[in-house]
């Protein structure tokens, strides 16, 4: 019998190719915004450069978003687990930031958060209800902000609709956000409609022969939904708490949307606009415009919406960062992305060790197993 160890053959998987493409796009964008004309290197070599105080203000604003997210998580989890600590909520938030940033359309954040919560002895069903409702709060608040943005800045966005691509981005982005929010609200509050959706999914799964164990998948889905509805009942018992949570999420969204304003001030674009007789960008304008940047760029199914985020920022903020001879749109994009994306990955990456190298697929499987055990415990009580 041969004692030689079989070497593992290197396989080029679809996931590997996808990751290489994403890294390639990210690397290209960073290099482009740094070395191209009027890029970051040109700005650093110019005498005016940055106003560092405003950059720090932008970093603090984005970090406040993470802090508020942690507070919301703590309030929700404490409904059933009164001893849940803020530091644990902060860990959960940072794990969500990291895995959400490195996966397409932010899909990896919640499974890893649920996995970490389960290790903190929080039931997966209740944890899932909390994380989903937090997502619903965020979607509803950003949706309201988007509608208000259209009303407040109607003339500005009306001009944007003259371009076919911007019109497509706006309409699809708004529709996607609305559909996702409505779907989650229906699943949250209507067990009857949710049951019909599960039956429809069951029929679809059985039609595709290549899908393994469709009955097991449907059973797992039913168990997750049952636990989710059980947890939801607890979340909506206190109306005052709901008002507080929506207020906190509104502050969180404002913190995220305000970052481009601090980037704008850091380049002293306010003074440049006034010198050229233009109306400078104000805080309210930034909140309105950035709400559109967010929901249109989210259409791009890549980690961090790479490419789409930069395009949306250029489309909506371009006129404010190109005034006279001052062209600072490229360094503005790079600085904004560094604060809200690349920097966020750097800050949150050390906390990924809390998941002990767990792959997202494995975390989802463990969450499903915990669901089954939790449901059995509820039935035996």
Characterize the structure shown.
The protein has helices at residues 14-35, 40-45, 52-77, 86-101, 109-119, 124-152, 154-160, 164-189, 191-207, 214-235, 239-257, 259-266, 269-275, 283-297, 308-321, 329-348, 360-380; strands at 322-323, 326-327. The radius of gyration is 23 Å and the shape is globular. Helix 3 (52-77) crosses helix 6, helix 5 runs antiparallel to helix 6 (124-152) and helix 6 packs across helix 10. Strands 1-2 form a two-stranded antiparallel ribbon. It is mainly α. The longest helix is centred in the middle third of the chain and has 29 residues, at 124-152. The N and C termini lie far apart (55 Å). The protein has one domain (49-373). The chain has 17 helices and two strands.
Give the SSE string: HHHHHHHHHHHHHHHEEHH
Strand order of the largest sheet: 1-2
Number of domains: 1
What is the alpha-carbon Rg in Å?
A: 23 Å
Brief overview:
The protein has 381 residues and is an all-alpha fold. It has helices at residues 14-35, 40-45, 52-77, 86-101, 109-119, 124-152, 154-160, 164-189, 191-207, 214-235, 239-257, 259-266, 269-275, 283-297, 308-321, 329-348, 360-380; strands at residues 322-323, 326-327.
What attributes characterize this protein structure?
two-stranded antiparallel ribbon; mainly alpha; 1% strand; disordered N terminus; 381 residues
Topology:
Elements lengths: L13 H22 L4 H6 L6 H26 L8 H16 L7 H11 L4 H29 L1 H7 L3 H26 L1 H17 L6 H22 L3 H19 L1 H8 L2 H7 L7 H15 L10 H14 E2 L2 E2 L1 H20 L11 H21 L1
Antiparallel strand pairs: 1-2
